[in-house]
Amino acid sequence: MLIAAIALGVAGCGGKQSTLDTHSTQSHDIRTLWWWMLVVAGIVFLGAIAMLTIGWIRRSRPGLPFFGQSERVETRLVVLFGMVIPVVVLVALFFVANVYVIGKTEPPKPGSTAMSVEVTGHQWWWEAHYPGTTAVTANEIHIPAATRVEVIGNTDDVIHSFWVPELNRKIDLIPGRNNRLLLDADSPGVYRGQCAEFCGLQHAHMSFEVIAQPPAQFRAWLQNMAADARPPTTPAEQAGQQDFMADQCASCHTIRGTAAQGQIGPDLTHLASRSTIAALTLPNDAEYLPRWIRDPQHFKPGNRMPGLNLSDQDVAALVSYLRSLR
Ligand code: CUA
After folding, report:
1. What is the pLDDT of residues 264-281, one digit of tens each?
2. What angle do CA 21, 24, 25 make, to 5 degrees?
3. How far is ligand 1, taken at its centre, from the CA of residue 203, in Å?
């Protein structure tokens, strides 16, 4: 039972989205602070338990030769453990956390980074724009590795919180404000992020990935992302594009280079280049994409995409078109 409880407790300490698996100097400093706080809190906890145990034994067995028989010693113990140690510990942690680590994880000065990404939180997905280009994407935010990138975060609706534990602290996305954060991944990799502020029914399904790539690979990605959508080539893709414009898809989604200019849902210009749909809720593959189009409310109740009662034929055509949008 105890082992199961401990296993459950530390289950969140590893894996894909761990504060302890750090990939930037900022998250490394946060991890160091976390370990210090854990060790100090552990010592304080054990000390308190020891005091309680001594007190309990002394009460139940009067006459045992524990220290503290004289009143002077008892008063000193109270002053030491009740005042001196807590003040020293709290002041030290205050300086380390609020002066040192917060300073180290400060947002970059505007214009001091190689590039910036504008991230907008939506119920319940993420939109990313790359200033200076026409690139727009959703839920998969690419950055060049070993490069200082400024995230400019805002929201389209309620308060969200942008958090990639392996890279830096979190920032709240607040209506009417731009909050900034530095991302500086030390190596290429996929770093999972999560909305960290309760924002409604599907808050738990508001995840994203920061994909840090070697700079040349990133530039190729960005160039593709900035381009208009590929025109459909096969008859099935052409039928799918017609359905997309004729059904209500186009009133919510943009596919750049076509008549679809909706601004409510994610930009789908290069949908097939993303590995997930619905903010990492489902894999973006031939099995789940049609199921999602048929009944999005089944997978993510309350999201803004309605099921449109499409025929199997329409869904199949839409899927072949969307899966061609690399
Ligand atoms: Cu967005 Cu929680």
Report:
1. 999 999 999 999 999 999
2. 110
3. 4
What residues are paired with 125 via a beta bridge?
A: 122
Q: What is the pLDDT of residue 8?
A: 58
* Nearest Cα residue to 200 out of 155, 260, 164, 241: 155
pLDDT score for 10: 59
- Across-strand partners of 180? 152
User: What are the tokens at 122?
Assistant: 């939506």
Cβ neighbours for 194, distance < 8 A, ≥ 6 positions apart: 17, 163, 206, 207, 208
Q: Partners of 207 in the beta sheet?
A: 194
Mark the ranges of the chain whose per-residue pLDDT is less than 50: none
Asked if residue 171 lies in contact with residue 146, where contact means CB atoms within 8 angstroms, the answer is no
pLDDT at residue 74, rounded to an integer: 76
pLDDT of residue 1: 58
Distance (Å) from CA 125 to ligand 1 centroid: 8
Instruction: Let me know: does 231 contact 190? Beta carbons within 8 Å.
Output: no
**What is the 8-class DSSP label of residue 320?**
H
Query: CB atoms < 10 A from the CB of 221, how many?
Result: 19
Residue where the block lists tokens 């980074």: 113
Minimum-distance ligand 1 atom for the alpha carbon of 123? 1
Closest CA to 202 of 134, 280, 150, 138: 280
pTM: 0.88
CB hemisphere CA count around 245 (13 angstroms): 11
Quote the ligand 1 centre to 209 CA distance (angstroms): 15
Q: Provide residues with CB under 6 Å of ligand 1.
A: 121, 124, 160, 195, 197-199, 203, 206
